[in-house]
Amino acid sequence: LDTLEKWVTEIFSEIPNNGLPKPSFGHLTQPFDTPEFHKLYRVVPIRKVHSLSITWALPPQEQHYRVKPLNYISWLVGHEGKGSVLSFLRKKFWALALYGGNSETGFEQNSTYSIFSISVTLTDEGYKHFYEVAHVVFQYVKMLQQRGPDKRQVIWEEIQKIEANEFHYQEQTDPVDYVESLCENMQLFQKEDFLTGDQLLFEYKPEV
């Protein structure tokens, strides 16, 4: 470690600091407020698969990393138990799988916007009824919006425990990939959260 520190100091200490602030694109408040994006696009895939993807562009969420509101929503949308969207669609024989979420990096989350997507893997019968499938998804999201967050905090705490277990028992990753991930985290999180900010939930704030 001492040797590595010496190398880094020698190589990088001569780079001048030009004093410029970190670029911000926060003034672009509506990056997708364009008629072309408010449409349904049909894409013919190479392999035989039917998939419906619904995408929303939201205000930037990276400042809420300690709360992770999109994790909360994706957990509810992706739930597969009784009363879930997927359970309903499976009973109709319209869908095989459903996923909702945000990767929290790059194109999907940055200082300008955050993307939230719901993807449904359709059956042949589901493809014939994809308008109804989309309607069901929007109905479910509307219901979540009207009900608001769980006031007893039970759902959020369950997600928090799951994420904590995954963090504590994760498999060892390639050191180079891990260092690259930490360097990215240093640009996004407070110092005390460099190691955990991209994985753990810290605070419950229903208003967020």
From TrEMBL:
<dbReference type="GO" id="GO:0008237">
    <property type="term" value="F:metallopeptidase activity"/>
</dbReference>
<dbReference type="InterPro" id="IPR032632">
    <property type="entry name" value="Peptidase_M16_M"/>
</dbReference>
<dbReference type="GO" id="GO:0046872">
    <property type="term" value="F:metal ion binding"/>
</dbReference>
<dbReference type="Pfam" id="PF16187">
    <property type="entry name" value="Peptidase_M16_M"/>
</dbReference>
<dbReference type="InterPro" id="IPR011249">
    <property type="entry name" value="Metalloenz_LuxS/M16"/>
</dbReference>
<protein>
    <submittedName>
        <fullName>NRDC protein</fullName>
    </submittedName>
</protein>
<feature type="domain" description="Peptidase M16 C-terminal">
    <location>
        <begin position="2"/>
        <end position="153"/>
    </location>
</feature>
<feature type="domain" description="Peptidase M16 middle/third">
    <location>
        <begin position="167"/>
        <end position="207"/>
    </location>
</feature>
<dbReference type="InterPro" id="IPR050626">
    <property type="entry name" value="Peptidase_M16"/>
</dbReference>
<dbReference type="InterPro" id="IPR007863">
    <property type="entry name" value="Peptidase_M16_C"/>
</dbReference>
<comment type="similarity">
    <text>Belongs to the peptidase M16 family.</text>
</comment>
<keyword id="KW-0482">Metalloprotease</keyword>
<dbReference type="Pfam" id="PF05193">
    <property type="entry name" value="Peptidase_M16_C"/>
</dbReference>
<keyword id="KW-0645">Protease</keyword>
<keyword id="KW-0862">Zinc</keyword>
<dbReference type="GO" id="GO:0006508">
    <property type="term" value="P:proteolysis"/>
</dbReference>
<keyword id="KW-0479">Metal-binding</keyword>
<keyword id="KW-0378">Hydrolase</keyword>
